[in-house]
Design brief:
- The chain is mainly alpha-helical.
- The protein has two domains: 49 residues; 210 residues, MetI-like fold, CATH 1.10.3720.
- It has 14 helices and no strands.
- Helix 1 packs antiparallel against helix 13, helix 3 packs across helix 13 and helix 10 packs across helix 14.
- The radius of gyration is 25 Å and the shape is flat.
- The two termini are 49 Å apart.
Length: 290
């Protein structure tokens, strides 16, 4: 009788514990739905607009599911605009800006982490949070003096304002989580600072490098201001090209939504394909090394 009496509270606590875990999971799932659903609905509505005729796009009540769907808006966007050229420009600008940011930001982040220069990290974060318009006028004046306006070189240089602070900030935080014992052991064996950085610190920091690369590329890809002001007709990037789809005579929702899909889809697919790498990198960067 005593054993039965003692087992009842234990089983009751186990049941309560299971219910609490289920409620927490349910609450987390509902929170995710509340946060993510607006973005998903906006994307689905944009996709719906791109697959409908202009008559259906302005119909009331609104038509959400096109019947039948049409690719005419995408054909029109690529026929009337050099979307292929703008897509290539975006790849070149974002890719080069990300590669240069990695070449500069990874060693800089390592130096900041090992020298404990936390004030410099805050300064870099402030530089990232500063609006892009603050850099626009000085950069425009310098590029005009150098004759670099309306060139991809100017866009790559301006996008470094976006990519370098992101990479430096992420890598500085990630290198701080790595155990220093391995680096100290390599230095005892005669390895220099550069050798230790290349063969010990960088392989351990791979998740952080992946996250920094992805975020830098995405922020550079989505930048509109620099491409709209500093680029010419042949050097526009995709976000600036979407703006050109707008006309003063009539707002064509179908082609505009199709152009927006063309801009959004590459980054969306990239994020979906390597989402595991992003989660691993974020988790590894948030756990302090022993």
């Amino acid at each position: 009788m005593d054993l039965t009496a003692r087992s009842l509270p234990v089983s009751s606590l186990a049941v309560r514990g299971r219910w609490r875990r289920r409620l927490r999971k349910l609450g987390f799932a509902l929170s995710v739905v509340v946060i993510v659903s607006p973005a998903i609905l906006v994307f689905l509505w944009m996709l719906s607009l791109s697959l409908k005729t202009e008559i259906d796009n302005v119909a009331y009540p609104p038509v959400f599911i096109p019947s039948p769907p049409t690719l005419a808006n995408f054909v029109q966007v690529f026929a009337e605009n050099s979307m292929g050229l703008y897509f290539w420009n975006s790849i070149v600008v974002s890719g080069m800006a990300t590669l240069i940011a990695l070449a500069v930001g990874i060693p800089a982040g390592y130096g900041i982490a090992r020298s404990q220069a936390h004030k410099l990290t805050v300064l870099i974060l402030i530089a990232r949070m500063t609006p892009a318009l603050s850099y626009l006028i000085p950069l425009f004046t310098v590029f005009q003096f150098l004759g670099l306006n309306n060139t991809l070189t100017a866009l790559v240089i301006t996008h470094l304002v976006i990519t370098v602070p992101i990479v430096v900030y992420i890598m500085a935080g990630h290198f701080e989580t790595l155990p220093r014992e391995l680096e100290e052991a390599a230095q005892i064996d005669g390895a220099g600072v550069w050798t230790t950085f290349r063969h010990v610190a960088m392989p351990l920091a791979r998740p952080g490098i992946v996250v920094g690369t992805i975020l830098a590329f995405i922020f550079s890809w989505n930048n509109f201001v620099f491409g709209a002001v500093l680029a010419g007709r042949a050097t526009r990037t995709l976000p600036a090209a979407v703006y050109n789809v707008l006309t003063f005579e009539q707002l064509a929702w179908g082609p505009l939504a199709a152009a927006a899909i063309v801009v959004t889809l590459p980054v969306l697919l990239l994020t979906i394909v390597i989402q595991k790498e992003i989660v691993v990198g974020m988790t590894a960067g948030g756990v302090k090394g022993g």
